[in-house]
Amino acid sequence: MPDPSTQGRLSRRTLIASLAVTAGAGAGSALAIGRDDAPAPASATGSTPVEPFHGTHQAGIATPQQRYAYFAAFDLEAGDAKGELLPIGQVAANFQKLMEHWSSAAERLMAGRSAGPLPVNRPGAPADSGIADGLPPSRLTVTFGLGPELFDRIGRKDLRPKHLHELPAFSTDRLQPAWSGGQLFVQICGDDPQSISHAFRTLRGRAPGLARLRWSQQGFLGRFGDATPRNLFGHKDGTANPRPGAALDDAVWAGGPDEPAWFTAGTYLVFRKIRMDLPKWDTSTAQQQDQSIGRRRDTGAPLSGGHEFTPLDFARTGPDGEPLIPADSHLALVRDIPMLRRSYNYDYAFQTAAEPAADHDHDHDQPGHSHDDPLHDHAGAGHDTYDTGMLFCAYLRDPTGFIGVQRKMAAADRLNAFIQHTGSAIFAIPPGAEPGRHLAAALFPAP
What we know:
Layout: H1 12-15, E1 68-76, H2 88-110, E2 141-146, H3 150-153, E3 184-190, H4 193-204, E4 211-220, H5 246-252, E5 267-276, H6 278-282, H7 286-293, H8 330-334, E6 340-341, E7 344-350, H9 360-363, H10 376-379, E8 386-396, H11 400-412, E9 419-429
Antiparallel strand pairs: 1-3, 1-4, 2-3, 5-8, 5-9, 6-8, 7-8
């Protein structure tokens, strides 16, 4: 759970207040995103906050963080109904259709409007589930991402962002294939979980024949107002987020001569599902907890003294001559990553139905895993016991630094005694869409 440098902070008020087939939807088809003759319901036009879909950047990144989130990854369909492999040109056309459908639906939903009928549906079936009828959008945002494999699948390898490569395996990872990777990514955030559920069903209903769901996860935050949110260890999470303006721009938004021109104003997302051993954490001493993190749980202040936003002092020692912030604490290892954290807690409690798990006989031989692993008994059965922790989301301009720090954490982080990384993915988040264009239109320039 990397915590970036304390040089600058995105304030809570600014961070928490700043893709069935339709005819003619090929590479040259027209798209009228957001054209809807039905007016938005009154609840979406009054005092209820509505986040804009169009803009330089996609919503849901620098947007003030909402209380709930739904994350999902999809893969493009590789074969047709007869089981024959689709040619790259058809996969690319299907991708464009999906992004048209998804972009159009997302814009309408974020504005508080109906997403419209499904592209293909049974005669007489309702166009919408109705579960959000009468509900305001509640700051709903829908954010889309593209995985490393996608660019090969659609024949656009030359347009893949420079740093978009699968994350390497880290020595302490216990990754579940069921929670990792993906060619397409969807992040849905908002302040009403029912509106979020409705948005996900709306997007998934537009995917059959074009893409299939790979994994999904749900998260939440407590009500903290302007204060930094707390994770399920009770510690504040996101203290060192960059301030709006130059610090945020430099840390998050991609661009420059090394990146493809279409990706300017986009960003990278590193997604990690981090499982927490809460029973062990809750029976550890306060000193053990604080020294594992490098901060005080109650105030968020660094152990070197001061308040939550006091600069870190790694040279300050205690009466025993040892640094007050241990060199192997989480904070000491991850302080230099420029990124915007937008993480959420998850708590699936005790899972009684066995779900896909890693080959744990193989895992026993991996570096960092032994029969004395404090999480071995919990994780050995996969996600069929106590599954709770953090859905870590880091938006950053260049994931190279994150990879380097993650290797350092795998080797020495005290927090490893209480956590395991069980899911992992990386995505390129395209820049925002212009009116009348879908979010991946720049990948398919007009002839």
